[in-house]
Every structure is written in structure tokens, then in C-alpha cells.
Design goal:
Length: 545
């Protein structure tokens, strides 16, 4: 028997989107926020660069719009780009009012703005190279103190509760299904709870763990995208996985990012022979957009057979480097690289999911009662390649917009007929999964295969091979899922496999190269056939799990 809990709003995830939405929505309703590990285990906490917004008189919204559109390579929704860039500056100032200590210039009035690839002006507000950590700290403090917010750690969403699966069947308008909350695994007790809510908001971040090398934290297993898909919500643009060009290459530390802001402050990429190379690949050189830089590095590594390239900022004054990048300086030093005197070994790594759960201008998905924010969502801002530091911006702008919509949505949903009892999570005759190897083996296999076959450079044959392997893996994982009692690892593995399949499916559909999707078999852009989003919906693929 599952325990049943109720709140007006269920937020899943405790990064910047989840926390800032919860804080604002709590003015109108009771919010339960669940997070699958500790509340600070988020991608936000690792964000170094900062938040892009027009905060200087030398910059303009039009320029920020243009830079975003160029980076997005034809697939941004211009209306969304205008909304986000215009509303962004107020959201940044609001974060300051909450207590975020952005770095200011000596006059104390003007922001100290950073530069990053693809931007035509300095516009990245930052807290040295620990911006995400500072934003997370402030938002956690604020949400913890709010009487209308309950935060539950170690609670992992398994699947959404769907009206069509209740005893009363479909409700609402004819043909319209509805999300009623989520089945949630309490990691401490092992029980699967029913968490009912009028509004459920997916803020589970991205899916970097689908790849062998990633800058993402361990929690980034694509949970929100996988559960939204299984519930019947529309997804978009999952082939556009952004590889950050510069992840620290060191066997002792995983996922440590060397911020793009380092190149923004004049660092140069060097090949194995110590020679700059980016100019050969793109006239914008080291500050080209991320898709171009990651491909340039990939080509250079393949050409020389080397395991990494190098990023050199040692020509800058030591005091400047230490003050501007204290976290990067200390971490690299700890692992034997003094960045003030020697270049940093770097490799590209999976960093950001530009697609996600398709949402409207207010963060609402195609499934009534379900919203998605931040990296989990696809708003139309990023198109085929996100502009650096536009993600924290999108998160705070959409969290604000979604919270503004809450009273209207709640009023509508509270008036719909009750759907009757929700079925308890069925465990059947499931046994305890004692052989962790069943999970680990598949997990490692997917990540390695995705890296080799669906990485920075793709091809039809590799995609086909990946599909064949995934078909087989998905069958096995599905069997495990029903044969064994749920464990967090099994839930995450299932999500990872689903997201991998969705990426491969989307990448196979797009027979052209655009933004982050580059395929050797179709190396050019094809605006006639593919100047559109890649929309996925379970109803159109009935055989898939
Ligand atoms: C970075 O600091 O390079 C990461 C920022 C981002 O991904 O936008």
C-alpha cells in the first residue's frame, strides 16, 4: 500500500529553476519540493561562468537577441529570445535583492561583466567562478525559511500520476489527459509514495550522464525528460546536446569544468605542439560558439591522436588569474597544474541538453497540470546551440513567468472533477535486486556507446549501430524494472536508457548538420526540410517503452 500525500504544487528538483519557482509560487499555494539526493546536489551548484543579461549601457537587448539567434543556428524562437533577454536584467537585479553577491566594479554600482564565446559584448554577471554556488546558497536559504514550502531530500520521482490511469479514467476536455502528481521513491525507506498535486513541475536538470565524459553532476540522468515522455508530454530537439569545449583532463577528478570565461579573459587553446589552432576552424577563433570550438578540438585531437588539448592563460598577471578564477586556480593546483605558469589539459565533455520537454511561454507542457523549467524544458530560447550563460537566465525568467501563471492554472484545475483513487505502485512478485552488476554493466555500456557513436561528430552507420544496441538494452532494462523491487539506480538506469534512445531517434531524423548536431553523412544545413524543431510524442511511437 503506497502512502498518499497532497500539496497544491509538486516541484521536482532543487536547482535554480526549482528553487526560484518554489519561492515565487509559494506566495499563492502550498509547495512540496522533492530532490533525489541532497538539496545542493544540482548542476546549478557547479555553474561557474554566470548569467548573461544586458546590464551595461554599452550593450543592448537587440545585440543579445542577435547573438542568441546566431548561436541557435536558425532554430531559436525569436519571440522567446526577446522575452528572455528583455526580462532577464530585472531577474538578475532581483537575485541581488535576494542576496546574491555579484561581482561589481570598483565604483560599486556597475556589474563586473564577463565575456564568453558567441557574445558580442561583456554581459555575463558572475560571482568570480562560483556563480551557481552563490545563487544556490541564497535560494536555498530563502526557500528553507518559507512557511509554504516543504523540502524533501532523498525523494526520487519514478513516474507521473496520470488521470487516464485512475479508476475514473480520462477527465477534463475530451481527449485531454492530465498529470496528477508523481510516484516518488523515498530512498531512505524504500517505499514508493503517491504524491498528488494540481501542478507538477519538472526541474530535474539535464542528461549529461548519458555520456561517458560530462561536466554534469551524478544526478543528471535525464529523469524529467524520460518521465514526461512516458506520461505522454511532447518533447523537442533532443539531438542538440552541447559539449563544453573545456573540461579539465585529469584521471583523479571527474566533471571539473574550466569555464568559458577563461577564454573570455584571453586564454588560448593550444594543440599538442603548443600551437594555437582555433583560427583554422572558425574566424571567431577561441571565442567562437561552443559547437564550433568543441568540433575544432575534436578534429585537432583526432588529427594528432592526442588525449587532450591545452588552454593557456599563463600570460595574464598571476594576481588577476587568482582573483578572477579562484576555484579553477585552486582545483587545478590541487591536481598538479599551476594555471598561472602552465597550460591546462582540457577535453570536451557533455554539458547541456538544449532540447527537453516542450513548453509554452509560461512553462506549461502539452500535458495539463505538468510544467517544466530550466534545462529540463525546451522553451525555444536555445535553438540548435545554447549561447554561453543563457541557461541560468532562462531558468530565472521562466521560473518567474511560470509562478505568475500559478493562480490561473490552479483555479482551472481545482474545478475539474476528481479522478478517483490512484493505484498504489505495483511491485507484484518483485525480488530484491542484489546483483548491482545488472545495473552497472548496462549503465557503463550506454555511456560509452553514446560517447563513441552519438558524440560531437555523428554518422548514419554509428546511429544505426547505437539504435540496435539500445533496442536490446531497453528490453533487458524493462525486464529488470518489473522483475525487481525499485532501487534508485534502477530508476535512473531506465531514465538514462530512454533518454539515450530519444537522442538517437532525434539525431537519426535530422538528416542535416546544424548547430550541435553534426553528421558526416549530411555535413550541410538543409533549411528546406529541417528548419524546424524535432518533436517527439509517445503516441506516435507506440512500440517504444
Ligand atoms: C562556463 O562557465 O563555461 C559554463 C557556463 C555555461 O554553460 O553557460
Amino acid at each position: 500500500m503506497s502512502t498518499e500525500h497532497y500539496s497544491d504544487i509538486l516541484v521536482i528538483g532543487s536547482g535554480v529553476s526549482g528553487l526560484s519557482f518554489a519561492l515565487k509560487a509559494a506566495q499563492h499555494a502550498k509547495v512540496t519540493l522533492i530532490t533525489k539526493k541532497n538539496k545542493a546536489d544540482t548542476a546549478t551548484n557547479l555553474a561557474q561562468g554566470g548569467i548573461a543579461a544586458v546590464l551595461s549601457v554599452e550593450d543592448s537587448i537587440d545585440d543579445h537577441v542577435q547573438d542568441t539567434l546566431i548561436s541557435g543556428d536558425g532554430l531559436c524562437n525569436e519571440e522567446v529570445v526577446r522575452i528572455v533577454t528583455s526580462e532577464g536584467p530585472d531577474r538578475v537585479r532581483e537575485l541581488m535583492e535576494f542576496g546574491v553577491r555579484f561581482q561589481m566594479q570598483k565604483n560599486g554600482r556597475d556589474f563586473d561583466l564577463g565575456m564568453e564565446g558567441g557574445h558580442s559584448a561583456r554581459r555575463v554577471a558572475h560571482v568570480s567562478d562560483l556563480t551557481g554556488k552563490e545563487i544556490e546558497r541564497v535560494l536555498l536559504e530563502q526557500t528553507a525559511a518559507h512557511p509554504n514550502i516543504e523540502i524533501l531530500e532523498n525523494h526520487l520521482a519514478v513516474d507521473l500520476l496520470i488521470a487516464s490511469k485512475t479508476t475514473a479514467g480520462r477527465t477534463g476536455r475530451a481527449g485531454e489527459d492530465r498529470c496528477l502528481g508523481a510516484y516518488v521513491l523515498d530512498r531512505t525507506s524504500g517505499a514508493v509514495e503517491i504524491r498528488r498535486a494540481h501542478i507538477t513541475v519538472l526541474c530535474t536538470g539535464g542528461c549529461g550522464k548519458v555520456y561517458l565524459y560530462t561536466t554534469n553532476p551524478d544526478i543528471a540522468t535525464g529523469d524529467g525528460v524520460a518521465i514526461a515522455y512516458r506520461a505522454g508530454a511532447q518533447l523537442a530537439n533532443l539531438e542538440f546536446i552541447q559539449f563544453h569545449p573545456t573540461c579539465f583532463f585529469n584521471p583523479h577528478i571527474k566533471n571539473f569544468l574550466i569555464s568559458e570565461a577563461v577564454r573570455g579573459e584571453g586564454a588560448t587553446l593550444l594543440n599538442q605542439e603548443g600551437k594555437p589552432f582555433m583560427q583554422q576552424y572558425d574566424p571567431r577563433g577561441d571565442l567562437a560558439t561552443r559547437d564550433a570550438v568543441a568540433r575544432g578540438i575534436d578534429a585537432e585531437m583526432k588529427k594528432s591522436g592526442s588525449d587532450c588539448v591545452y588552454l593557456d592563460i599563463s600570460h595574464k598577471p598571476t594576481e588577476f588569474v587568482k582573483k578572477r578564477f579562484p576555484n579553477i586556480y585552486e582545483t587545478c593546483k590541487h591536481y598538479g597544474v599551476d594555471i598561472t605558469v602552465e597550460p591546462i589539459p582540457v577535453v570536451p565533455a557533455a554539458h547541456y541538453m538544449c532540447g527537453g520537454v516542450l513548453v509554452n511561454h509560461w512553462g506549461q507542457s502539452s500535458l495539463t497540470g505538468l510544467m517544466a523549467l530550466g534545462e529540463t524544458s525546451c522553451t525555444g530560447l536555445h535553438g540548435a546551440n545554447r549561447l554561453a550563460s543563457n541557461s541560468l537566465l532562462e531558468a530565472v525568467v521562466y521560473a518567474h513567468r511560470a509562478a505568475q501563471r500559478v493562480p490561473k492554472i490552479l483555479a482551472k484545475l481545482r474545478n475539474l472533477p476528481d479522478c478517483g483513487p490512484i493505484q498504489a505502485w505495483k511491485t507484484g512478485g518483485a525480488a530484491i535486486l542484489e546483483e548491482g552488476i545488472l545495473v552497472n554493466h548496462n549503465w557503463d555500456g550506454i555511456r560509452r556507446l553514446m560517447w563513441d557513436y552519438v558524440g560531437i561528430v555523428r554518422g548514419t552507420k554509428r546511429l544505426q549501430l547505437m539504435r540496435e544496441r539500445l533496442d536490446w538494452l531497453l528490453k533487458e532494462i524493462k525486464a529488470h524494472f518489473y522483475d525487481y523491487l525499485l532501487t534508485p539506480d534502477l530508476v535512473e538506469l531506465r531514465n538514462l536508457a530512454v533518454v539515450a534512445e530519444l537522442i538517437v531517434h532525434s539525431a537519426s531524423w535530422r538528416k542535416e548538420s546544424r548547430g550541435l548536431h553534426y553528421t558526416l553523412d549530411y555535413p550541410h544545413k538543409d533549411d528546406i526540410h529541417y528548419l524546424k524543431d524535432t518533436i517527439l510524442h509517445k503516441a506516435e511511437r507506440p512500440t517504444f517503452m
